[in-house]
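Budget justification note: compute hours in this period were largely spent on complex prediction jobs such as the one shown. Inputs:
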Amino acid sequence: MLLKSTVRTGLFACGLAVSFAAGSGAFGQAGAARPAAAETSTAQPSALTDPQIAEIAAAANQIDIDAGRLAERKAHSKDVKAFAKLMVTDHSAVLKQAQQLLKKLKVKPEASAVSKALQSGAKANIAALKKLKGNAFDKHYVDHEVAFHQQLLDALDQTLIPGAKNAQLKALLEKVRPAIATHLEHAKKVQSELAKKK
Amino acid sequence: MKWRHASQLVLSIGLLAVPLTASAKGKTYHVVISGMKFTPQTLTVNVGDTVEWTNEDIVPHTATSKIFDSGTLEPGKSWKTTLHRQGAVPYRCHFHPPMTGSIEVK
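Corresponding output:
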């Protein structure tokens, strides 16, 4: 029990630390979850409840929709604009289906330290983006998208999917995973194209 | 004489075309879009066969090639097309460049 709660605090603290320090990614460092699983075989992969997982998933989608909407308007490169548009479309579709499922399951999303850290990290990212223009905007947006999707993918694999107790919630998260992996691949490609232009 | 041969030829082509058109109501193949993949990814069909894509994924997709374009397929939607020409038809999702598939039309 003590170990579990230490791990939990560690995960949250780490998430918060990353969020405030880097202004991005608040899912908790991938490294924070790994030792937890290694230290004790009886430890739950996540101390999060289903309503908390639901809120994290909803927040992650909403955050990427908001950043995408801003980038659709402000991005300089055609590829970045197209990527931003795709993020708005895809994350809106995921959010819609997640909300439908939660309604069906009568699960009310619940805020947690992780979801709050995610939201404050997103706020910092939007504030930073608003100050930038042209190529500098594109670079910041795409770099952040790469990091965000990498962290989301790690969180899905290490915390959210293993942690979900309801089978339908777990299945939905599993269904989302390939989309996030493809977005990450796509974002990395756009990132390397931007680097070539310089 | 030449003209007669020619008209016979046209006539026989015309007759041949009938069964070909009839076979256009041939088989229908199904491709499922799920997990950011087309399954099966490769498909071999005959001229006149139909391919139907169903989006069982969580996000919208397309099946787009040089000769067809499904347009946006929202989750749960299907779209089909009949293939009239022989050859290889590579296609992809317009939104997600890593998603590709191909149809061999025999």
